[in-house]
Amino acid sequence: MNQQAGLSLDNINNLSVSEAQQWFSHCCAAPKWFEAMAKARPFTDICQVKQVAQELWLGSSNQDLLTAFEAHPMIGDVSSLRKKYAATKDIASNEQQGATQASEQTLQSLADANHKYLAKHGFIFIICATGLSADTMLNALMQRINNSTATEIQLAAAEQIKITLLRLEKGLEKGIQTT
């Protein structure tokens, strides 16, 4: 399936199951979530898509959450941003725009703090970075780094659904490249 400008809900509803799974996987990489989203079709409107997305996400296991987190680039790592966003560039490219405009010192601080966070919690720091400056992201990371891992999984899951909902909206506006 090629990228479609102005992909409609009808297009999504009429995709094959495997194409729909692939489409939804660009919004969230948790397999159980994107498989369930494909099965939940047809949708009547974007509100229903978002409602089902949230309900399914709330029922996700920790393994599903961690799988989704693994698909994200580390905040501030510009080279991994390019690599990981290659398949979802139309809907995810601006998510860390604040990091791409940061000073080298801030990027280094983000990288250092991210590595400490990863070592402590076993997954990268997740934040819905849209519209946030690198300094704001760094401050949030520093505030959360000493939380328990159980708390961080829940906070990261709350951030992940924000990201997913934004990607769903953008995907319906612009279309998503799935080949």
TrEMBL record:
EC identifiers of the protein: 4.1.1.97
Family annotation (InterPro entries): OHCU_decarboxylase, OHCU_decarboxylase-2, OHCU_decarboxylase_sf
SUPFAM superfamilies linked: UraD-Like (SSF158694)
UniProt keyword Lyase, yes or no: yes
Keyword Manganese: no
Gene3D superfamilies given in the database record: Oxo-4-hydroxy-4-carboxy-5-ureidoimidazoline decarboxylase (1.10.3330.10)
Highest taxon of the lineage: Bacteria
Reaction equation(s) it catalyzes: 5-hydroxy-2-oxo-4-ureido-2,5-dihydro-1H-imidazole-5-carboxylate + H(+) = (S)-allantoin + CO2
Pathway as given in its UniProt record: Purine metabolism; urate degradation; (S)-allantoin from urate: step 3/3
Pfam families per UniProt: OHCU_decarbox
Keyword terms of this UniProt record: Decarboxylase, Lyase, Purine metabolism
One MF annotation (Gene Ontology) recorded for this entry: 2-oxo-4-hydroxy-4-carboxy-5-ureidoimidazoline decarboxylase activity
Domain Oxo-4-hydroxy-4-carboxy-5-ureidoimidazoline decarboxylase residues, every copy: 13-169
Biological processes per GO annotation: purine nucleobase metabolic process; urate catabolic process
The protein's name: 2-oxo-4-hydroxy-4-carboxy-5-ureidoimidazoline decarboxylase
